[in-house]
Write a structure and sequence with these properties.
By secondary structure, this protein is mostly beta strands. The chain is built from 1 helix and 8 strands. An 8-stranded antiparallel beta barrel has the order 1-2-3-4-5-6-7-8. It is elongated. It starts with a helix and ends with a strand.
């Protein structure tokens, strides 16, 4: 039982470090970092990346109002089965900042099992990420997303210890449409 607790502690410490780095950098003391306008309406963010929010390796979508979004991903895995995810994302600030820290909770494909001499299969579970959107160029267009997450499986594969926890990175390139005037 100590191993999952140490992983949970490590993810908590890494998440705190990410937020401590991200929050001061969102202060926008430099006028060139300030947003053009205010946040309004529905924002749509689509992109390609790797991580559970992108269906393992694939495409992701983020549709939201203000600081909350529905997220989903659909992709592939290294061994062929389809990867997918659905979830919720909470932004710590509005989306008018160059650096936008957020927390994401998703359910979907968390593990791919490659069976020697047989078919591969996927295992579903929950993923919890501390992440950061970084607007590249004009705010609201091209966005890089990176983060770290803790994953767990609903039903561990045969022979695996129960419960299973994994720490995984997430990264992607996205484009944001709307949500700003």
């Amino acid at each position: 039982m100590k191993k999952p607790l140490s992983i949970v502690s490590w993810v908590g410490a890494a998440s705190l470090a990410l937020l401590l780095v991200a929050v001061p950098s969102t202060a926008e003391a430099d006028p060139s970092q300030a947003a053009q306008g205010t946040e309004t309406g529905v924002a749509l963010k689509v992109g390609l990346g790797a991580g559970i929010p992108y269906g393992v390796i694939g495409a992701g979508v983020d549709v939201g109002i203000s600081r909350f979004s529905l997220v989903g991903g659909f992709g592939t895995t290294a061994y062929g089965p389809v990867g997918w995810s659905v979830g919720l994302r909470a932004y710590l600030f509005d989306r008018t900042r160059r650096f936008q820290p957020h927390l994401t909770a998703v359910y979907g494909t968390t593990l791919i099992v490659d069976v020697v001499g047989g078919d591969s299969y996927t295992v579903n579970g929950f993923g919890f990420y501390a992440s950061l959107d970084h607007d590249i160029g004009p705010i609201g267009g091209l966005i890089l997303t990176y983060g770290i997450g803790l994953l767990t499986n609903d039903v561990p594969p045969a022979g695996a210890p129960d419960p299973q926890y994994f720490v995984r990175a997430m990264f992607g390139g996205n484009y944001r449409f709307g949500g700003r005037q």
